[in-house]
Write a structure and sequence with these properties.
The structure is a single chain. By secondary structure, this protein is an alpha+beta fold. The protein has one domain. The protein is about 20% helix and about 25% strand. It has eleven helices and 16 strands. The strands form three sheets. The chain has a ten-stranded mixed beta sheet with strand order 2-1-15-4-5-13-9-8-7-11, with helices on one face. Strands 3-16-14 form a three-stranded antiparallel beta sheet. The longest helix is centred in the first third of the chain and has 13 residues. The protein is globular.
Length: about 350
């Protein structure tokens, strides 16, 4: 069996237990990425129109079946109704995927200013562009110049040799993104692209999907009054197959009133920032070199032995994800900014 077709496992953070992931649409995705789909058909399958059509069938007209049972679907997806707001309204796949939760209570957050938090319920890999062993990230997961935008020279300079964290949301996850730190929005822009799936096998077989899929980039300056004092952070929200949109809907409290994220807006750590219209998707965080220290367990889990993963580095060594909760610590700011040359 090829490496792309092996089981995919990850580490549960609280217990260290290893879990095997049930990958959504795995057979179809692997067929597409193992050579039988011609280039023209592949581009059609990952286009905005086809992605939206598949989303319509899956989420608004569940496979055109009049027998959709929300209770059975909720159980299959593993959704915890006790954490949901208005669980009685979760009557369609779309409403289930776009559910809101009582995050203040069920996703507690360390309020310390130095702590940086996960933007999503997701499986995360962390590393640095300055690591030789992680250079494959630039050409496999994404090409840095394309990821941040070829015309964005200012941000390419700012995030050269950046530390990175890749958060992979699976279809069963809560699909709101939250601010990873407090700071002011310096820039926000959309980069065009396709809708390739974020299945691990597809990621390792495709052409740098995180930098060729449609994505929205938010650059946050945390070195401002009331900010997290962790330098510039680029939060990159990447669409995937059946993700119709990334809705910017920042809220200072709860989910109301949601506001469009714009330049100059101050974002508070841990608050809802955006929503993926459903499916699977990915968040990428870039931190300026030397401004953040990732939590030790996330770093050590990445090289954990005896765990099967479809993610691997340029030497063929497995890279292991850790399951994290939104608003949970992923690292701490460095005590002082690095010296400038």
């Amino acid at each position: 069996m090829s490496q792309s077709l092996c089981d995919h496992q990850y580490v549960m953070r609280p217990t260290g237990e290893v879990k095997t992931e049930s990958l959504f649409g795995d057979r179809l995705v692997n067929a597409v990425y193992n050579g039988w789909t011609p280039g023209l058909l592949y581009r059609a399958l990952t286009s905005a129109r086809i992605s939206s059509f598949l989303a319509l069938l899956a989420f608004d007209r569940p496979l055109a079946s009049p027998r959709f049972d929300p209770r059975q679907f909720i159980q299959k997806m593993g959704v915890d109704l006790s954490e949901c707001r208005n669980p009685e309204a979760l009557t369609t796949p779309r409403r289930i995927f776009e559910r809101q939760i009582r995050y203040e209570e069920r996703r507690p957050m360390d309020p310390s200013p130095e702590v940086l938090v996960s933007p999503a319920d997701a499986r995360v890999l962390v590393g640095s562009f300055s690591e030789t062993s992680s250079l494959f990230i630039k050409g496999r997961f994404f090409r840095f110049t394309d990821l941040i935008g070829r015309e964005k020279e200012r941000w390419r300079r700012a995030f050269e040799d950046a530390d990175w964290a890749v958060f992979r949301l699976t279809p069963d996850k809560y699909h709101y993104n939250h601010a990873p730190a407090s700071g002011r929005v310096l820039d926000i822009y959309t980069l065009p692209g396709g809708y390739a799936p974020c299945n691990p096998g597809a990621v390792m077989s495709a052409d740098a999907p995180y930098s060729t899929n449609r994505r929205l980039v938010t650059v946050i300056d945390t070195d401002v009054p009331g900010g997290s004092q962790a330098g510039l952070i680029a939060m990159i929200e990447v669409v995937a197959l059946m993700i119709g949109d990334i809705v910017q809907c920042y809220s200072d409290s709860g989910y109301d009133p949601p506001r469009d994220v714009r330049k100059g807006m101050f974002l508070r750590k841990g608050q809802p920032k955006s929503l993926y219209r459903p499916g699977s998707s990915t968040d990428v965080l870039l931190f300026q070199k030397g401004r953040v220290r990732f939590d030790p367990d996330l770093v050590s889990n990445r090289r954990r032995q005896g765990v099967l993963s479809r993610f691997y580095d340029d030497r063929g060594d497995s890279m292991i994800e850790t399951e994290v909760a939104v608003r949970e610590s992923i690292g701490r700011r460095m005590s002082s900014p690095p010296p400038t040359s």
